[in-house]
Each structure stands twice: as structure tokens, then as C-alpha cells.
Amino acid sequence: QVHLVESGGGLVQAGGSLRLSCAASGSFNRINDMGWYRQNPGLQRELVATITSGGVTNYADSVKGRFTISRDNAKNTVYLQMNSLEPEDTAIYYCNVKWVGVRYQSSWGQGTQVTVSS
Length: 118
Known about the structure:
Layout: E1 2-7, E2 10-13, E3 18-26, E4 30-39, E5 46-51, E6 57-59, E7 67-72, E8 77-82, E9 91-100, E10 104-108, E11 112-117
């Protein structure tokens, strides 16, 4: 099993920055893709950004140029640097990790609230 601990959410004014972290621990052979998703009440969870074990990144169009995803493979941690935040970025942000144990699996973090005030 993989346990994910997220941190770094909070309240920030529009134009400000936040950095999210998600650390994975537990029993696994390796971690493949890591990513961040976000969700608002009544809406579907949407992709924000993903990063492969080799460092290839993918971003939602709405965050390109403002958010940067990175990872530290030695620490099994993924980060999301969010700059130029907009009120539309307000959501609960969830970390997702795809990992290999006995088989390929996916785990979600508990979520961290990001609120951007105008």
C-alpha cells in the first residue's frame, strides 16, 4: 500500500503563489506517474498536471505557464508550484500516484484546499 501526505494549501490573494507537496510512503516496488488534480463541489475532478518518472510533464491548458510540477524521486515526493494564482484556481487539490506493487495501482491523497481571493 501507498500512503500519501499532502501539504501546502491555503488562502492567497489573486496574483500570489503557493507550493503544494505530496510525499508517498509505504510498500511498493516503484512509483511511475505522479500528478495533481483538482475538484470543486458538484464538478468532476480535473487534471492539473502530471509528471512521469523520467520527468516528462503534462499540464492542463488553464495552468500552462503559471504552474510547474516537479518531483524528487529519492524522496518519493511530487510538488506543484503555483504562481499568478487566479480565483478560478480555487479548489481542493488532490495528489495522485501510480505505483507498482504486486500489480499496477493508483492512490489518491486526502486533498488540500486552495482558495484564491480576488
